[in-house]
Structure prediction request, 156 residues.
Amino acid sequence: MGVLGAIAKHLDALIGPGAMLVYPLYASIRAIESPSSLDDQQWLTYWVLYSFITLFELSCWKVLVWVPIWPYMKLLFCMWLVLPIFNGAAYIYGNIVRKYVKIGGYMSSNYPESQRKVLEMMSLDARKSVERYIDRYGPDAFDRVIKAAEKEARKQ
Prediction:
């Protein structure tokens, strides 16, 4: 086997730090500097998931020692999370985290109670759009929109 066998046996140790730490660190810095929030979401989610993996690994190390393919499973999963072709972290955020975790629990007290109730039912993206609408046209315009929507809902 020789050199190739040693490389194959320690592939996770050779590729792992670059794939799981160096590239995500570089991409996170780029995301912070970019105006878009989509890449921020990808990399924040990655770091949260990586932290969970690390905590799991630290907590269960006595069991994981007996699982010979664990380092390779971890490497593959982290590469799926990291690589732009897959965007696994964004996928997990959009399909799991956003469904089951209440996002944006804080609501500004500047809004009347009726508007706060409506805003709390919205997704974070919709809430941001509505808050921009209120800032632009005023709270009375938003009240008219809510009343028109309630009127339409009663018709059906």
Notes: DSSP finds nine helices and no strands in the chain. Residues 58 and 88 are 23 Å apart (CA to CA). The radius of gyration is 23 Å. The chain has a mean pLDDT of 80.
